[in-house]
Amino acid sequence: GSVAVPVADPEGLRAVAREVIAFCKEDMACQSIRLAGTAGAVDVSLMFGDLPIRYYQQGEWEEGGKLSGVLMAELYLNRSRACFGCPIGCGRETRAPSYGVERVDGPEYETLGALGTLLMVSDLEAVIYAGHLCNLYGLDTISMGATIALACELAGRGLLRVAETGGLEVRYGEPALVHRLIELTARREGLGDLLAEGSAALAERCGVPELAVVVNRLEVPLHDPRAFHGMAVTYALSPRGACHMEGDMYGVDMGQCPAEEIGVPAGDRFDTSAEKGRIAARQQAWRNLYNALTLCQFQNPGVERLVRALNAVTGWGCAAGDLLVTGKRIVTLKRLLNLRRGLTRACDRLPDLLMQPLADGGTEGHVPNLEQLLAGAYAEYGWDPETGRPTPETLASLGLELSG
Fold first, then answer.
1. What is the Cα 97 distance to its own chain's centre?
2. Adjacent-strand bridge partners of 264
3. Contact by Cβ (8 Å): 351, 235
4. Which secondary structure element, helix H or strand E, spans residue 277, and what is its range?
5. How far apart (Å, rounded) are the C-alpha atoms in residues 165 and 310?
6. How far is it, in rounded angstroms, from Cα 94 to Cα 91?
7. How far apart are alpha carbons 186 and 193 in whole angstroms?
8. How many helices (H) and strands (E) does the chain have?
9. Beta strand pairing status for 214-215 and 101-105?
10. What gap in Å lies between CA 290 and CA 240, rounded to an integer?
11. What percent of the chain has pLDDT over 70?
12. Which end of the chain is more exposed for a tag (fewer CB within 10 A), N or C?
């Protein structure tokens, strides 16, 4: 458009912008993502047991370090890319020369996990190319990688028949197989026709629905709730199924994005109390506010600066608590829509595999107490603990009386 966007306090906004840019230049998390993109999280996530391995069933894998974002920057990076005006530039353009591909968008952390560690593939260039194929075909890398990994698990357990695999030897650790299955899925040919329906449908077809690592039929991303128990709330209450962008409690408990002013402090990642559930609910509400304001979760310059920036743009007089309430209103409205479409309290769950402790690695012996965490989250949102429905009092306080 050609019309200038009105700003209530231009100088006030410029002052906050200068502070945010200075913050991003000094903040360690921003520096890390500038250097290696989201792929820079691979090494630390492996250490914490946050990056799932072998379809969420293995705690350690020495080969996983070969998928490091630093290595990717050294060996395959063409250039960094940034959104307009961003001082960080987390985007990556890479290459896969062995496959004749000179420009690849990404890969991001989630892709390196879904098409790498989840499938026991440590060939970084092969994973980059697998991500490239998903880009070309318009396939989500998390769902694609998780569904192929489930197929490997089913085949290993003797639950996929030869007729279903089309004669392919389906097993972990085979880059060429991953590439082939991506193409077959995109074309809905052979085994790809089954994979195209996703993990939940594949597990059901093989008679083992409990093996699907999904929440409300959406594949779980590459942040394990056994590593950061607050993520159990994030996944169980995400309105579209498991989504790590709904509330990044892994970042909170690593000290990357705490927000003490709204009751989201960094804490014990294995805390599975009702209070932790409350904190996770506040972070979910805060990130929903971020989404509504079209803010990026990769820069977190503090609650106070965000409040000042919003007030400078709008001329409002918001406080931090007002913004948290707005986030809760967004979450609760989505909850009402899902309840109206048939979801129930029973849908707030984690898949069976993620409720089983691993014998080694950064999460050894740990699983979240989901019911205890949810009790805190429901209390924080003002939802009935038995039904999961927002109470009439909550709806009235949020101005959503007519939506219930």
1. 29
2. 259
3. no
4. helix 274-292
5. 54
6. 10
7. 8
8. 18, 5
9. unpaired
10. 17
11. 100
12. N
- pLDDT exceeds 90 at position 6: yes
Q: What is the DSSP letter of 272?
A: -
Q: Which two tokens stand for residue 344?
A: 């129930």
Is the pTM higher than 0.90? The answer reads yes
Between the alpha carbon of residue 41 and those of residues 123, 143, 284, 363, the distances in Å are: 18, 20, 21, 17
Q: Measure CA 58 to chain center.
A: 20
The whole-angstrom separation of Cα 348 and Cα 215 is: 8
| Cα 20 versus chain centre, distance | 25
Phi, psi angles (nearest 5°) of residue 93: -115, 120
CA atoms of 334 and 330, how far apart (whole Å): 6
Query: What DSSP line would sit under 173-220, residue for residue?
Result: T-HHHHHHHHHHHHHT-THHHHHTT-HHHHHHHTT-GGG--EETTEEP
- In angstroms, the CA 377 to CA 277 distance is 5
Buried b / exposed e over 136-148, threshold 16 CB at 10 Å, is eeebbbbbbbbbb
Of the options 1.10.569.10, 1.20.1440.20, 1.10.510.10, 1.20.1250.20, the CATH number for the domain spanning 28-219: 1.10.569.10
Task: Render pLDDT for 318-349 as a digit per residue (tens, 0 to 9).
Answer: 999 999 999 999 999 999 999 999 999 999 99
> Which residue ranges make up each domain of the chain?
28-219, 230-403
